[in-house]
Amino acid sequence: MPTSPQAPTPAPAATSATTAHQPVWPAIVAPYAEPQDHWIEQLGRRRNDDFAWLKYIPESGTRTMDNLPEPLGSLLQAERDYAAQMLAPLAPSAQRFYEAMAAHVCSTELAPPAALQGWAYSSQAGAGGQRVFVRSHSDGRVQTLVDEAVQSEGHVYYRATDHQASPDDRYYAWAEDLIGNDRHRICVLDTQTGETQVLVAEDAFGYGGLTFSPSSQDLFWIWRDAHSRPSRLYRSALQGGEPVLVHEETDPALFMRVVRTAANGFVVLSLFGPDTSEVHLIAAGQEHAPARLLRPRERGIRYEVNEWNGNLVALTNAGGATDRQILRLDPEHLQPQQTLAAHRLGVPIIKMQPFASTLVRLERVDGLHQLVLLQRDGTETTIRFDEPAYTLDLLPGQHWDASHVRVKHQTPAQPPRWLDIRLADGQMTEMGRETWSGLDTANYRIERLQARAVDGEWVPLTVLSRKDIDASQPQPLLLTGYGAYGIAHEASFSLPALAWVDAGYRYAIAHVRGGSEKGHGWYQGGCREHKRNSMTDFIACAQHLQQLGYTTPQQTVAQGISAGGLLVSGAMNMQPAQWAGVIAQVPFVDMLNTMSDADHPLVPLLRPDWGDPLADPVAYDYIAALSPYENVREAAYPPLLCTAGLKDDRVPYWEPAKLMANVRRRSTSAAPALMLLNPDSGHQESDQQESVLGQAARLWAFAQHCATAGKPPAA
């Protein structure tokens, strides 16, 4: 449970180490991006985007260092060289962080689900930290399905997703990105012959973009268009033949997802945006027939559909249920017939998972997960855990007629463990866990605190530290957050976070507005004209930890990814002196220009979250007043480290490049602004251990240098 709000205690006096010394950086002149006038007239407003020339989109193919035009190519190579030279003195520190993480070797022992006949699917750590997907049979047989270390051989970049088995257990499919641009190919293994075919060679959409037909004869998959938007649903026969177009969506403001219902009765095509959705159903036995529309799209109404107890069930916000309710639908007219889980304000229903006997739902109370088992007779059993902070996941692909539901439970200090919860009464049995060599979870302390925001709201904070830390002295702190799209920043296990904490520091998550930790209202309180709340919440969390004596401004490093990069960069602009350093990974920081780009793959979809500066003057003005790139000012900025992927289409490299150029131009301090540009990646690093841990080690070495005045404590 969160701790009770309390008046902050005064911080201890800062030590001389945190006030008298500043980190020492190599005396190297940074590359210079020449400002070039680029005036834009929009809605009666005029602005000069004088670093617009840093943007480059090739006419075809993906960006590479070889096809960049001049002088852009030379500048970006100079940025890479400059970052490498500036960070070179930190290499020993980065190596220590890397070795600390790599020394923990993961082993997973996972039993098949209880009381289940047939195959059970799971994954485990393999060579280089990559995953090996296996299945085990109730008769004792074990079969390896996909070894990602093998699949990634010969590829600089590799990331896979959407692993799943066909209903008849013959086939196993997954999507893999070999380039870094989120355009996947789809592979299908025939477990009878042992042969793997590339069913879709390119331009497929992962992350909910494929599912087998109920008959196991076809694969439904989603195609990305030239703007990288998922816009078509195809059906491909597993035995060969040309793909068949099932549905084409022309509204760029909608995304697509395709799944099967739990009872294998339907393929469900969901079209959705932040504030609307539409579902089409393809029935088992009629898989080549046109899809049936369930409910036409209506702005403000979101719904998801599954089947349970012989009926369709909908998880929806209809009827003013902002934190969602579950309704049983009339099978003929598809109208609401019964409320199975009523709406409760501030208790968002995150997910539902039907089984033959029981409807399981995952919801959030006081910011923490709980599981509810609903029986056919209406009785409920609630499953909750007593840790200060934890995360629960309902695993996909569970058998419809299982007697237990399998969940994954983890905390910031405890690696994932798998629990089977008996559907009849909620009895729990641990069926396996990740075990990391050299890790003793008893060494760590997890705290759930609350910080008072400027408008009086209480913002949850999760803090991880070692129990043997010197609590009488402020310590270096890495504060992270996200706060966008209604996505909660979960308190999950993180090997990089533990490596930071094991160095004697603190790690904290600020659960700011814009996420969904406290329900739909928490999300709405941090988007559009309220987006500033996310940033002021983040600052309030940092100040609360400083007032408690946990850290000082000279020891606090902010870190965020993507929209979290917007969060920390905005907080940096608001209060530069609050931070010893800022790490913004693939940061969304050129808000006004990006949201004014109708060709961007995500802009039409995300207008409900950010506003439309092309059509709405009010939206233009509040985005212009907040966008980190436009709002860099003359002030003493802290050291700034940005990351970027050259092939990133979600948050392209020019966003951090433009921010960095503007910070260099306006900052009155001598602190560096650096960009780690990966020419081989997109929005995410490759799944290979060297990429994931290597980047974390470099970022942590930078953070340590900033927060310890360049003098990390002796081991």
From TrEMBL:
The keyword Protease applies. The keyword Secreted does not apply. Residues 492-707 form the Peptidase S9 prolyl oligopeptidase catalytic domain. SUPFAM superfamilies: alpha/beta-Hydrolases, Peptidase/esterase 'gauge' domain. InterPro entries: AB_hydrolase_fold, Pept_S9A_N, Peptidase_S9_cat, Peptidase_S9A, Serine_Peptidase_S9A. GO terms for biological process: proteolysis. Residues 41-428 form the Peptidase S9A N-terminal domain. GO terms for molecular function: serine-type endopeptidase activity. Keywords: Hydrolase, Protease, Serine protease. PANTHER family: B PROTEIN, PUTATIVE-RELATED (PTHR11757:SF20), PROTEASE FAMILY S9A OLIGOPEPTIDASE (PTHR11757). This is S9 family peptidase. It comes from Comamonas piscis.
